[in-house]
């Protein structure tokens, strides 16, 4: 008789079906709605591949929209086949994040979790595994700040604690800082000294962001989609800017020595770049 061990680690992916005109609309300053949706589809596929490669972890996808209407719908359907898919619930982003974490807690009782979106296709399985290891052993929560002032990942020893950040304003320049402050505010089950930081990453909102992240993962689906959809220079007189080597948007920013996240390991790939 074969038995299955209980799931103790979950990667939660908050995603939107990449339908033209409904995703990555800020990219349409440099490409078409279809091109923007193609970039989003590639980002989602790379993200699901990384999540699925995390050892001993289940993947739960909280999905908005119908993937049958999406770009690369056959590939997305195949990638979702090995995951648990639930619909997003709630009116605000905070409500949808809370509901998705409740779904994790209900589906996989007692599991630790790490939540990501589909805007950081440079993430890899090693970085996600590190986040899960952190909240399984040394932390109550860990937050990955984004270089634009938001956040890209939230790891929790108890996924239901996500409800504590439901009312933090999103899409603001200080959303990440305010989220971290709320997590460290002394709530039950979240000791301030056990709320740590993950490495900061750049997420993809603008054409310049897309080019910078594509440079980090030049062999992935995302980089190929960016090359297909975004010309090396924008239309008109404003060229798309490729950040100079060594700039904060061209590379992952390591925590400073002595910071709470200094022990986190960044993924490596040939040439010293993240995956």
Description:
The chain is α/β, with parallel strands linked by helices and 275 residues long. Helices cover 31% and strands 16% of the residues. The chain has seven helices and seven strands; from the N terminus they run βαβαβαβαββαβαα. The chain has helices at 33-52, 73-80, 93-107, 125-137, 175-183, 207-216, 221-229; strands at 9-16, 58-64, 84-87, 112-116, 141-146, 151-156, 195-201. α1 links the parallel β1 (9-16) and β2 (58-64). α1 packs parallel to α2. Mean pLDDT is 87; it is low at 234-239 and 241-275.
Layout of strands and helices, then pairs:
Layout: E1 9-16, H1 33-52, E2 58-64, H2 73-80, E3 84-87, H3 93-107, E4 112-116, H4 125-137, E5 141-146, E6 151-156, H5 175-183, E7 195-201, H6 207-216, H7 221-229
Parallel strand pairs: 1-2, 1-4, 2-3, 5-7
Antiparallel strand pairs: 4-6, 5-6
């Amino acid at each position: 008789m074969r038995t299955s061990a209980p799931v103790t680690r979950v990667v939660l992916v908050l995603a939107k079906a990449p339908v033209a005109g409904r995703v990555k609309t800020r990219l349409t300053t440099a490409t078409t709605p279809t091109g923007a949706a193609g970039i989003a589809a590639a980002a989602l596929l790379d993200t699901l591949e990384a999540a699925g490669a995390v050892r001993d972890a289940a993947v739960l996808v909280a999905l908005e929209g119908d993937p049958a209407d999406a770009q690369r719908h056959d590939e997305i359907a195949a990638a979702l086949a090995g995951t648990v898919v639930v619909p997003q619930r709630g009116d605000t982003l905070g409500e949808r994040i809370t509901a998705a974490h409740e779904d994790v807690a209900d589906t996989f009782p007692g599991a630790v979790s790490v939540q990501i979106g589909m805007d950081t296709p440079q993430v890899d399985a090693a970085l996600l595994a590190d986040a899960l290891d952190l909240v399984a052993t040394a932390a109550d929560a860990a937050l990955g700040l984004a270089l634009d002032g938001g956040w890209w990942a939230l790891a929790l020893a108890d996924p239901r604690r996500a409800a504590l950040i439901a009312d933090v304003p999103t899409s603001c320049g200080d959303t990440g800082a305010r989220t971290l402050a709320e997590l460290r505010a002394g709530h039950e089950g979240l000791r301030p000294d056990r709320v740590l930081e993950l490495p900061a990453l750049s997420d993809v909102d603008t054409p310049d962001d897309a080019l910078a992240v594509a440079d980090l993962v030049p062999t992935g689906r995302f980089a190929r989609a960016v090359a297909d959809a975004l010309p090396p220079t924008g239309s008109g007189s404003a060229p798309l800017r490729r950040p100079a080597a060594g700039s904060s948007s061209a590379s992952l920013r390591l925590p400073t020595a002595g910071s709470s996240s200094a022990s986190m390991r960044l993924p490596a790939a040939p040439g010293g770049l993240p995956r």
